[in-house]
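Quick one, tokens below. Sequence please?
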């Protein structure tokens, strides 16, 4: 008798798994049963996520109140389950849209509108320091480069085009490059010349 047959392993995983929320901040939020196990030691917080239900690269999973982005491939079963690496999301970008807001009427009763940018949500990101470059002309300037990885979806593609301005860690950054590096993941390169640390 094989004590490690697929059904026994499936039953064991079902018994020890707990419920996790996937894409909690989106309209597509769902829950999935799974377990987390430690990944290799690294500068960043990472886990392996195991589930009998399929999930995909680019999903973000809520683990102990924090968001983790699925960065590994999840194409087929690995043994009897799905498994991938999930990485800690160390920041958020705000999702914004332009809205016309009625502020009153003119002398003949026609509505007067103004356009405002309003925050409609946020998306978890992984921000990684890339480098700093010094330019020494008549004035020395420093440019900080970050690589930002996030879920690839239409909202993120619309909000974070090249030349968009984003706020992160109290600084303002400009998007200078966007790329779908892997299926499910959108990667941005952002820069700033704001060298002063933010002071509350």
């Amino acid at each position: 008798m094989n004590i490690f047959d697929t059904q026994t392993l499936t039953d064991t995983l079902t018994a020890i798994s707990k419920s996790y929320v996937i894409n909690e901040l989106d309209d597509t939020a769902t829950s999935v049963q799974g377990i987390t196990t430690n990944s290799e030691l690294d500068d960043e917080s990472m886990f392996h996520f195991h589930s009998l239900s399929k999930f995909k690269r680019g999903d973000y999973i809520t683990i102990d109140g924090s968001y983790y982005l699925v960065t590994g491939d999840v194409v087929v079963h690995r043994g009897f389950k799905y498994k991938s690496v999930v990485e800690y999301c160390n920041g958020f970008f705000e999702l914004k849209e332009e809205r016309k807001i009625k502020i009153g009427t003119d002398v003949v009763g026609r509505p007067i509108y103004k356009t405002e940018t309003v925050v409609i949500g946020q998306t978890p990101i992984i921000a990684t320091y890339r480098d700093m470059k010094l330019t020494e002309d008549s004035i020395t300037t420093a440019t900080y480069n970050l690589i930002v990885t996030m879920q690839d979806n239409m909202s993120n593609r619309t909000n974070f085009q090249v030349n968009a301005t984003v706020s992160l860690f109290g600084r303002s950054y400009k998007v200078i490059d966007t790329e779908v590096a892997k299926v499910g993941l959108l990667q941005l390169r952002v820069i700033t010349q704001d060298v002063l640390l933010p002071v509350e």
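The helical segments are 6-16, 154-159. The chain has a mean pLDDT of 84.
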